[in-house]
Amino acid sequence: MTEFQTISRKEQIIVTAAQLFKQKGYEASSMRDIALVLNMEAASLYHHIKSKEEILELICFTMAQKFLAAIAEVNDIYFNAEEKLRKAILHHVEIITEDINKSAVFLREWRSLPENSLKDFMFLRNHYESEFTHIIENGMQEDIFENVDKKFAVLSILSSVNWINEWYQADGKMNAAEIAKKISDFVMGGLRKKMVTDPHYRP
Amino acid sequence: MTEFQTISRKEQIIVTAAQLFKQKGYEASSMRDIALVLNMEAASLYHHIKSKEEILELICFTMAQKFLAAIAEVNDIYFNAEEKLRKAILHHVEIITEDINKSAVFLREWRSLPENSLKDFMFLRNHYESEFTHIIENGMQEDIFENVDKKFAVLSILSSVNWINEWYQADGKMNAAEIAKKISDFVMGGLRKKMVTDPHYRP
DNA sequence: AAATTTGCCTAACAATCGTTAGGTAAAATG
DNA sequence: CATTTTACCTAACGATTGTTAGGCAAATTT
Asked: Which of residues 134-153 of B touch A (CB under 8 A)?
Protein backbone atom coordinates (compact mmCIF):
# COMPACT_ATOMS: atom_id res chain seq x y z
CA MET A 1 0.00 0.00 0.00
CA THR A 2 3.09 2.21 -0.19
CA GLU A 3 2.31 3.90 -3.46
CA PHE A 4 -0.66 2.07 -4.83
CA GLN A 5 -3.76 4.18 -5.40
CA THR A 6 -2.05 6.92 -3.36
CA ILE A 7 0.06 9.76 -4.63
CA SER A 8 3.68 9.93 -3.57
CA ARG A 9 4.86 12.78 -1.38
CA LYS A 10 7.19 13.93 -4.13
CA GLU A 11 4.32 14.14 -6.59
CA GLN A 12 2.26 16.02 -3.99
CA ILE A 13 5.03 18.59 -3.77
CA ILE A 14 5.19 18.92 -7.54
CA VAL A 15 1.42 19.25 -7.88
CA THR A 16 1.30 21.88 -5.15
CA ALA A 17 4.23 23.74 -6.69
CA ALA A 18 2.60 23.70 -10.13
CA GLN A 19 -0.54 25.23 -8.68
CA LEU A 20 1.41 28.01 -6.96
CA PHE A 21 3.69 28.57 -9.96
CA LYS A 22 0.64 29.07 -12.14
CA GLN A 23 -1.01 31.38 -9.63
CA LYS A 24 1.90 33.62 -8.67
CA GLY A 25 4.71 32.65 -10.99
CA TYR A 26 7.83 30.60 -10.28
CA GLU A 27 9.98 33.41 -8.90
CA ALA A 28 7.24 34.77 -6.65
CA SER A 29 6.49 31.36 -5.13
CA SER A 30 8.72 30.42 -2.21
CA MET A 31 9.60 27.02 -0.84
CA ARG A 32 7.84 28.14 2.34
CA ASP A 33 4.67 28.80 0.32
CA ILE A 34 4.76 25.26 -1.01
CA ALA A 35 5.46 23.80 2.40
CA LEU A 36 2.61 25.76 3.99
CA VAL A 37 0.04 24.20 1.68
CA LEU A 38 1.36 20.75 2.54
CA ASN A 39 1.45 21.46 6.29
CA MET A 40 5.15 20.98 6.59
CA GLU A 41 8.36 22.96 6.94
CA ALA A 42 10.28 24.28 3.94
CA ALA A 43 13.40 22.38 4.96
CA SER A 44 11.48 19.09 4.88
CA LEU A 45 10.82 19.47 1.19
CA TYR A 46 14.48 18.73 0.55
CA HIS A 47 13.99 15.17 1.71
CA HIS A 48 12.04 14.57 -1.50
CA ILE A 49 13.44 17.03 -4.03
CA LYS A 50 16.90 18.33 -4.76
CA SER A 51 16.13 22.00 -5.28
CA LYS A 52 13.46 24.46 -6.31
CA GLU A 53 14.86 24.44 -9.83
CA GLU A 54 14.47 20.67 -9.97
CA ILE A 55 10.73 21.04 -9.42
CA LEU A 56 10.50 23.43 -12.36
CA GLU A 57 12.56 21.10 -14.53
CA LEU A 58 10.43 18.09 -13.65
CA ILE A 59 7.24 19.92 -14.57
CA CYS A 60 8.55 21.43 -17.80
CA PHE A 61 10.18 18.29 -19.17
CA THR A 62 7.38 15.94 -18.16
CA MET A 63 4.95 18.12 -20.07
CA ALA A 64 7.32 18.46 -23.03
CA GLN A 65 7.55 14.68 -23.27
CA LYS A 66 3.77 14.35 -23.24
CA PHE A 67 3.40 16.78 -26.12
CA LEU A 68 6.17 15.14 -28.13
CA ALA A 69 4.81 11.65 -27.58
CA ALA A 70 1.38 12.79 -28.75
CA ILE A 71 2.58 14.39 -31.98
CA ALA A 72 4.85 11.43 -32.73
CA GLU A 73 1.88 9.09 -32.41
CA VAL A 74 -0.18 11.25 -34.78
CA ASN A 75 2.55 11.33 -37.38
CA ASP A 76 3.24 7.60 -37.09
CA ILE A 77 -0.27 6.42 -37.79
CA TYR A 78 -1.42 7.20 -41.28
CA PHE A 79 -3.87 10.02 -41.64
CA ASN A 80 -4.30 12.58 -44.34
CA ALA A 81 -3.11 16.07 -43.45
CA GLU A 82 -6.44 17.34 -42.22
CA GLU A 83 -6.93 14.30 -40.01
CA LYS A 84 -3.38 14.66 -38.75
CA LEU A 85 -3.85 18.31 -37.89
CA ARG A 86 -7.18 17.69 -36.19
CA LYS A 87 -5.73 14.83 -34.14
CA ALA A 88 -2.66 16.88 -33.25
CA ILE A 89 -4.84 19.75 -32.05
CA LEU A 90 -7.07 17.34 -30.13
CA HIS A 91 -4.16 15.73 -28.29
CA HIS A 92 -2.66 19.13 -27.56
CA VAL A 93 -5.91 20.37 -26.04
CA GLU A 94 -6.29 17.15 -24.08
CA ILE A 95 -2.85 17.47 -22.52
CA ILE A 96 -3.47 21.08 -21.58
CA THR A 97 -6.90 20.53 -20.09
CA GLU A 98 -5.78 17.39 -18.24
CA ASP A 99 -3.50 19.50 -16.03
CA ILE A 100 -3.88 23.24 -16.47
CA ASN A 101 -1.47 23.98 -13.65
CA LYS A 102 1.44 22.05 -15.07
CA SER A 103 0.68 23.27 -18.58
CA ALA A 104 0.66 26.87 -17.37
CA VAL A 105 4.13 26.30 -15.97
CA PHE A 106 5.22 24.63 -19.19
CA LEU A 107 3.88 27.51 -21.26
CA ARG A 108 4.87 30.49 -19.10
CA GLU A 109 7.50 29.67 -16.50
CA TRP A 110 10.06 27.78 -18.58
CA ARG A 111 12.02 31.03 -18.91
CA SER A 112 13.16 30.55 -15.31
CA LEU A 113 14.86 27.24 -16.11
CA PRO A 114 18.62 27.20 -15.45
CA GLU A 115 20.76 27.81 -18.52
CA ASN A 116 21.52 24.17 -19.32
CA SER A 117 17.96 22.94 -19.02
CA LEU A 118 16.74 25.96 -20.92
CA LYS A 119 18.78 24.95 -23.96
CA ASP A 120 17.39 21.42 -23.92
CA PHE A 121 13.88 22.67 -23.35
CA MET A 122 13.96 25.06 -26.27
CA PHE A 123 15.27 22.28 -28.47
CA LEU A 124 12.29 20.09 -27.59
CA ARG A 125 9.92 22.99 -28.13
CA ASN A 126 11.34 23.69 -31.58
CA HIS A 127 11.09 20.03 -32.42
CA TYR A 128 7.41 20.01 -31.52
CA GLU A 129 6.82 23.11 -33.61
CA SER A 130 8.56 21.55 -36.62
CA GLU A 131 6.34 18.48 -36.40
CA PHE A 132 3.37 20.76 -36.83
CA THR A 133 5.06 22.46 -39.75
CA HIS A 134 5.46 19.08 -41.46
CA ILE A 135 1.72 18.49 -41.23
CA ILE A 136 1.04 21.80 -42.93
CA GLU A 137 3.58 20.93 -45.64
CA ASN A 138 1.89 17.59 -46.17
CA GLY A 139 -1.45 19.29 -46.55
CA MET A 140 -0.10 21.68 -49.13
CA GLN A 141 1.49 18.81 -51.07
CA GLU A 142 -1.77 16.90 -50.94
CA ASP A 143 -3.38 20.08 -52.26
CA ILE A 144 -6.01 20.19 -49.53
CA PHE A 145 -4.54 23.23 -47.79
CA GLU A 146 -4.20 26.73 -49.23
CA ASN A 147 -0.69 27.77 -50.15
CA VAL A 148 -0.25 29.73 -46.91
CA ASP A 149 2.86 30.92 -45.10
CA LYS A 150 3.76 27.81 -43.10
CA LYS A 151 5.48 29.69 -40.30
CA PHE A 152 2.49 31.93 -39.71
CA ALA A 153 0.01 29.09 -39.92
CA VAL A 154 1.86 27.03 -37.33
CA LEU A 155 2.35 29.96 -34.99
CA SER A 156 -1.29 30.95 -35.28
CA ILE A 157 -2.47 27.43 -34.58
CA LEU A 158 -0.14 26.86 -31.65
CA SER A 159 -0.88 30.23 -30.12
CA SER A 160 -4.60 29.52 -30.35
CA VAL A 161 -4.39 26.15 -28.68
CA ASN A 162 -1.99 27.40 -26.03
CA TRP A 163 -4.21 30.35 -25.22
CA ILE A 164 -6.93 28.09 -23.91
CA ASN A 165 -4.73 27.70 -20.87
CA GLU A 166 -5.58 31.31 -20.00
CA TRP A 167 -9.32 30.84 -19.81
CA TYR A 168 -10.06 27.12 -19.49
CA GLN A 169 -11.61 26.00 -16.23
CA ALA A 170 -12.01 22.35 -15.47
CA ASP A 171 -15.55 22.91 -14.22
CA GLY A 172 -16.55 24.60 -17.47
CA LYS A 173 -19.14 23.25 -19.84
CA MET A 174 -16.81 22.27 -22.66
CA ASN A 175 -14.59 19.22 -22.71
CA ALA A 176 -11.32 18.88 -24.58
CA ALA A 177 -12.91 17.32 -27.67
CA GLU A 178 -15.42 20.15 -28.07
CA ILE A 179 -12.77 22.82 -27.65
CA ALA A 180 -10.47 21.07 -30.10
CA LYS A 181 -13.25 20.80 -32.67
CA LYS A 182 -14.09 24.50 -32.46
CA ILE A 183 -10.47 25.54 -32.84
CA SER A 184 -9.89 23.05 -35.64
CA ASP A 185 -12.98 24.22 -37.50
CA PHE A 186 -11.87 27.82 -37.20
CA VAL A 187 -8.37 26.99 -38.32
CA MET A 188 -9.50 24.70 -41.13
CA GLY A 189 -11.81 27.31 -42.48
CA GLY A 190 -8.66 29.29 -43.13
CA LEU A 191 -6.64 26.43 -44.46
CA ARG A 192 -8.97 24.22 -46.43
CA LYS A 193 -9.00 24.92 -50.13
CA LYS A 194 -12.35 26.24 -51.26
CA MET A 195 -13.38 24.19 -54.26
CA VAL A 196 -15.38 26.94 -55.93
CA THR A 197 -15.24 25.25 -59.32
CA ASP A 198 -17.27 22.38 -57.92
CA PRO A 199 -20.96 23.45 -57.92
CA HIS A 200 -21.88 20.70 -55.46
CA TYR A 201 -19.44 21.98 -52.81
CA ARG A 202 -20.95 22.90 -49.47
CA PRO A 203 -18.78 24.57 -46.83
CA MET B 1 17.92 71.44 -23.82
CA THR B 2 16.50 69.93 -20.64
CA GLU B 3 14.19 67.43 -22.27
CA PHE B 4 14.16 68.30 -25.92
CA GLN B 5 15.34 65.55 -28.24
CA THR B 6 16.69 63.77 -25.17
CA ILE B 7 14.99 61.11 -23.10
CA SER B 8 14.23 61.84 -19.45
CA ARG B 9 15.99 59.86 -16.75
CA LYS B 10 12.67 58.47 -15.60
CA GLU B 11 11.92 57.17 -19.08
CA GLN B 12 15.44 55.68 -19.26
CA ILE B 13 14.70 53.76 -16.08
CA ILE B 14 11.40 52.52 -17.46
CA VAL B 15 12.94 51.50 -20.78
CA THR B 16 15.75 49.65 -19.02
CA ALA B 17 13.31 47.99 -16.65
CA ALA B 18 11.10 46.88 -19.53
CA GLN B 19 14.07 45.27 -21.24
CA LEU B 20 15.04 43.37 -18.08
CA PHE B 21 11.45 42.46 -17.23
CA LYS B 22 11.08 40.92 -20.67
CA GLN B 23 14.38 39.09 -20.43
CA LYS B 24 14.18 37.67 -16.91
CA GLY B 25 10.68 38.47 -15.70
CA TYR B 26 9.53 41.13 -13.24
CA GLU B 27 10.14 39.14 -10.05
CA ALA B 28 13.59 37.97 -11.11
CA SER B 29 14.74 41.49 -12.02
CA SER B 30 16.07 43.49 -9.10
CA MET B 31 16.34 47.23 -8.64
CA ARG B 32 20.10 46.66 -8.50
CA ASP B 33 19.95 45.01 -11.94
CA ILE B 34 18.24 48.06 -13.37
CA ALA B 35 20.65 50.43 -11.69
CA LEU B 36 23.67 48.48 -12.96
CA VAL B 37 22.66 48.96 -16.59
CA LEU B 38 22.25 52.70 -15.99
CA ASN B 39 25.58 52.95 -14.13
CA MET B 40 24.01 54.11 -10.92
CA GLU B 41 23.09 52.83 -7.47
CA ALA B 42 19.78 51.15 -6.73
CA ALA B 43 18.90 53.73 -4.10
CA SER B 44 19.27 56.52 -6.65
CA LEU B 45 16.42 55.13 -8.70
CA TYR B 46 14.03 56.28 -6.01
CA HIS B 47 14.76 59.89 -6.89
CA HIS B 48 12.79 59.31 -10.09
CA ILE B 49 10.30 56.58 -9.32
CA LYS B 50 8.22 55.72 -6.28
CA SER B 51 8.67 51.97 -6.20
CA LYS B 52 9.40 48.91 -8.30
CA GLU B 53 5.68 48.28 -8.58
CA GLU B 54 5.17 51.77 -9.99
CA ILE B 55 7.47 50.92 -12.89
CA LEU B 56 5.39 47.86 -13.70
CA GLU B 57 2.19 49.87 -13.46
CA LEU B 58 3.50 52.62 -15.72
CA ILE B 59 4.48 50.10 -18.39
CA CYS B 60 1.28 48.05 -18.22
CA PHE B 61 -1.15 50.97 -18.21
CA THR B 62 0.69 53.00 -20.84
CA MET B 63 0.50 50.04 -23.17
CA ALA B 64 -3.13 49.36 -22.29
CA GLN B 65 -4.03 52.93 -23.19
CA LYS B 66 -2.27 52.63 -26.54
CA PHE B 67 -4.22 49.52 -27.43
CA LEU B 68 -7.52 51.02 -26.32
CA ALA B 69 -6.95 54.27 -28.18
CA ALA B 70 -6.18 52.33 -31.35
CA ILE B 71 -9.29 50.17 -31.25
CA ALA B 72 -11.47 53.16 -30.38
CA GLU B 73 -10.17 54.98 -33.44
CA VAL B 74 -10.91 52.00 -35.65
CA ASN B 75 -14.46 51.67 -34.36
CA ASP B 76 -15.09 55.41 -34.61
CA ILE B 77 -14.22 55.77 -38.26
CA TYR B 78 -16.61 53.96 -40.55
CA PHE B 79 -15.33 50.77 -42.08
CA ASN B 80 -17.09 47.57 -42.94
CA ALA B 81 -16.32 44.67 -40.61
CA GLU B 82 -13.48 43.23 -42.66
CA GLU B 83 -11.81 46.62 -42.95
CA LYS B 84 -12.33 47.18 -39.23
CA LEU B 85 -10.79 43.86 -38.31
CA ARG B 86 -7.84 44.35 -40.65
CA LYS B 87 -7.20 47.83 -39.27
CA ALA B 88 -7.54 46.62 -35.69
CA ILE B 89 -5.04 43.84 -36.32
CA LEU B 90 -2.68 46.26 -38.08
CA HIS B 91 -2.71 48.73 -35.19
CA HIS B 92 -2.25 45.94 -32.69
CA VAL B 93 0.79 44.61 -34.55
CA GLU B 94 2.19 48.13 -34.89
CA ILE B 95 1.96 48.79 -31.16
CA ILE B 96 3.61 45.47 -30.34
CA THR B 97 6.45 45.83 -32.83
CA GLU B 98 7.06 49.46 -31.90
CA ASP B 99 8.20 48.38 -28.45
CA ILE B 100 8.58 44.65 -27.97
CA ASN B 101 10.00 45.05 -24.47
CA LYS B 102 7.09 47.00 -23.06
CA SER B 103 4.60 44.82 -24.91
CA ALA B 104 6.20 41.70 -23.45
CA VAL B 105 5.69 43.18 -19.98
CA PHE B 106 2.13 44.11 -20.87
CA LEU B 107 1.41 40.62 -22.14
CA ARG B 108 3.25 38.50 -19.59
CA GLU B 109 4.15 40.37 -16.42
CA TRP B 110 0.83 42.05 -15.56
CA ARG B 111 0.13 39.18 -13.15
CA SER B 112 2.65 40.76 -10.77
CA LEU B 113 0.64 43.98 -10.51
CA PRO B 114 -0.56 44.81 -6.98
CA GLU B 115 -4.13 43.79 -6.27
CA ASN B 116 -5.75 47.17 -6.92
CA SER B 117 -3.99 47.84 -10.19
CA LEU B 118 -4.61 44.28 -11.26
CA LYS B 119 -8.35 44.79 -11.05
CA ASP B 120 -8.20 47.95 -13.16
CA PHE B 121 -5.86 46.34 -15.63
CA MET B 122 -8.08 43.32 -16.18
CA PHE B 123 -11.03 45.61 -16.71
CA LEU B 124 -9.19 47.44 -19.50
CA ARG B 125 -8.10 44.16 -21.00
CA ASN B 126 -11.64 42.83 -21.04
CA HIS B 127 -12.83 46.05 -22.60
CA TYR B 128 -10.31 45.70 -25.40
CA GLU B 129 -11.37 42.11 -25.97
CA SER B 130 -15.04 43.11 -26.15
CA GLU B 131 -14.28 45.74 -28.80
CA PHE B 132 -12.90 42.96 -30.95
CA THR B 133 -15.97 40.86 -30.27
CA HIS B 134 -18.16 43.70 -31.56
CA ILE B 135 -16.29 43.73 -34.84
CA ILE B 136 -16.92 40.02 -35.27
CA GLU B 137 -20.60 40.54 -34.44
CA ASN B 138 -20.80 43.34 -37.02
CA GLY B 139 -19.29 41.07 -39.63
CA MET B 140 -21.80 38.34 -38.90
CA GLN B 141 -24.68 40.83 -39.09
CA GLU B 142 -23.34 42.17 -42.37
CA ASP B 143 -23.23 38.52 -43.49
CA ILE B 144 -19.61 38.72 -44.61
CA PHE B 145 -18.31 36.49 -41.79
CA GLU B 146 -19.17 32.86 -41.18
CA ASN B 147 -21.46 32.18 -38.25
CA VAL B 148 -18.56 31.23 -36.01
CA ASP B 149 -18.26 31.04 -32.23
CA LYS B 150 -17.42 34.68 -31.41
CA LYS B 151 -15.52 33.86 -28.25
CA PHE B 152 -13.26 31.41 -30.02
CA ALA B 153 -12.71 33.67 -32.99
CA VAL B 154 -11.66 36.61 -30.82
CA LEU B 155 -9.39 34.50 -28.65
CA SER B 156 -7.78 32.89 -31.68
CA ILE B 157 -7.17 36.24 -33.33
CA LEU B 158 -5.80 37.91 -30.21
CA SER B 159 -3.60 34.98 -29.31
CA SER B 160 -2.16 35.00 -32.84
CA VAL B 161 -1.33 38.68 -32.83
CA ASN B 162 0.03 38.53 -29.29
CA TRP B 163 2.24 35.59 -30.11
CA ILE B 164 4.31 37.65 -32.52
CA ASN B 165 5.84 39.15 -29.39
CA GLU B 166 7.55 35.80 -28.85
CA TRP B 167 9.39 35.65 -32.12
CA TYR B 168 9.47 39.16 -33.60
CA GLN B 169 12.85 40.80 -33.85
CA ALA B 170 13.16 44.42 -34.81
CA ASP B 171 16.00 43.62 -37.24
CA GLY B 172 13.90 41.02 -39.04
CA LYS B 173 12.84 41.29 -42.62
CA MET B 174 9.16 41.90 -42.05
CA ASN B 175 7.59 45.15 -40.96
CA ALA B 176 4.38 45.53 -39.00
CA ALA B 177 2.21 45.96 -42.10
CA GLU B 178 3.47 42.76 -43.71
CA ILE B 179 2.99 40.75 -40.54
CA ALA B 180 -0.49 42.18 -40.04
CA LYS B 181 -1.46 41.32 -43.61
CA LYS B 182 -0.31 37.72 -43.28
CA ILE B 183 -2.17 37.21 -40.03
CA SER B 184 -5.26 38.95 -41.37
CA ASP B 185 -5.26 36.85 -44.52
CA PHE B 186 -4.94 33.68 -42.50
CA VAL B 187 -7.71 34.75 -40.14
CA MET B 188 -9.96 36.02 -42.91
CA GLY B 189 -9.65 32.81 -44.79
CA GLY B 190 -11.38 31.25 -41.83
CA LEU B 191 -13.93 33.98 -41.39
CA ARG B 192 -14.90 35.18 -44.81
CA LYS B 193 -17.99 33.55 -46.21
CA LYS B 194 -17.27 31.38 -49.20
CA MET B 195 -19.76 32.37 -51.86
CA VAL B 196 -19.90 28.98 -53.52
CA THR B 197 -23.22 29.68 -55.24
CA ASP B 198 -21.54 32.41 -57.29
CA PRO B 199 -19.65 30.71 -60.16
CA HIS B 200 -17.57 33.84 -60.78
CA TYR B 201 -16.17 33.83 -57.26
CA ARG B 202 -12.40 33.64 -56.97
CA PRO B 203 -10.82 33.23 -53.52
C1' DA C 1 14.49 -7.55 19.24
C1' DA C 2 17.99 -4.86 16.93
C1' DA C 3 19.25 -2.04 13.16
C1' DT C 4 18.21 0.87 9.58
C1' DT C 5 15.57 3.89 6.86
C1' DT C 6 12.03 7.30 6.30
C1' DG C 7 9.95 11.63 7.04
C1' DC C 8 9.72 15.18 9.35
C1' DC C 9 11.45 18.83 12.76
C1' DT C 10 14.17 23.18 14.70
C1' DA C 11 17.77 26.30 14.02
C1' DA C 12 20.51 28.73 11.42
C1' DC C 13 23.40 30.30 7.34
C1' DA C 14 24.72 33.64 3.80
C1' DA C 15 22.77 36.11 0.18
C1' DT C 16 19.63 39.10 -1.76
C1' DC C 17 15.52 41.82 -1.73
C1' DG C 18 13.00 46.65 -1.85
C1' DT C 19 13.43 50.66 0.45
C1' DT C 20 14.78 54.69 3.71
C1' DA C 21 17.88 58.18 5.77
C1' DG C 22 21.13 61.45 5.41
C1' DG C 23 24.85 63.61 3.02
C1' DT C 24 27.37 65.94 -0.98
C1' DA C 25 28.65 68.06 -5.15
C1' DA C 26 27.03 70.15 -9.28
C1' DA C 27 23.56 72.70 -11.67
C1' DA C 28 19.83 75.92 -11.90
C1' DT C 29 17.63 79.82 -10.07
C1' DG C 30 17.12 84.13 -7.68
C1' DC D 1 27.05 85.81 -5.45
C1' DA D 2 23.70 83.34 -2.46
C1' DT D 3 20.18 79.95 -2.46
C1' DT D 4 17.67 76.31 -3.82
C1' DT D 5 17.02 72.27 -6.47
C1' DT D 6 18.57 68.26 -8.84
C1' DA D 7 20.80 63.96 -9.15
C1' DC D 8 23.37 61.16 -7.34
C1' DC D 9 26.08 58.74 -3.39
C1' DT D 10 27.11 55.55 0.94
C1' DA D 11 25.31 53.00 4.57
C1' DA D 12 22.13 50.49 6.49
C1' DC D 13 17.42 48.47 7.77
C1' DG D 14 14.34 44.51 8.31
C1' DA D 15 12.42 41.00 5.73
C1' DT D 16 12.65 37.11 2.87
C1' DT D 17 15.08 33.93 -0.04
C1' DG D 18 16.94 28.89 -1.01
C1' DT D 19 19.40 25.74 1.37
C1' DT D 20 22.26 22.93 4.92
C1' DA D 21 23.16 20.62 9.39
C1' DG D 22 21.89 17.87 12.87
C1' DG D 23 18.44 15.62 15.62
C1' DC D 24 14.38 12.69 16.74
C1' DA D 25 10.46 9.64 16.58
C1' DA D 26 7.95 6.37 13.88
C1' DA D 27 7.96 2.91 10.48
C1' DT D 28 10.32 -0.63 8.11
C1' DT D 29 13.68 -4.16 7.48
C1' DT D 30 16.85 -7.59 9.11
From this structure: 146, 148-149, 152-153
Q: How far is B156 from chain A (nearest CA, A)?
A: 5
CB B75 within 8 A of CB B67: no
Q: Is the distance from CB of B76 to CB of B134 less than 8 angstroms?
A: no
| Domain positions in chain A | 60-191
Residues 6+ apart with CB under 8 A from B31: B42, B45, B52
The closest nt to B2, taking CA to C1', is C28
Indicate the CATH number of B59-191 among 1.10.357.10, 1.10.3430.10, 1.10.10.60, 2.60.120.10: 1.10.357.10
Q: Domain A60-191 class?
A: mainly alpha
pLDDT in tens, A180-202: 999 998 888 865 655 554 444 44
Mean pLDDT estimate for chain A: 89
B174 contacts on A by Cβ (under 8 Å): none
Distance from CA of B159 to the nearest CA of A (A): 6
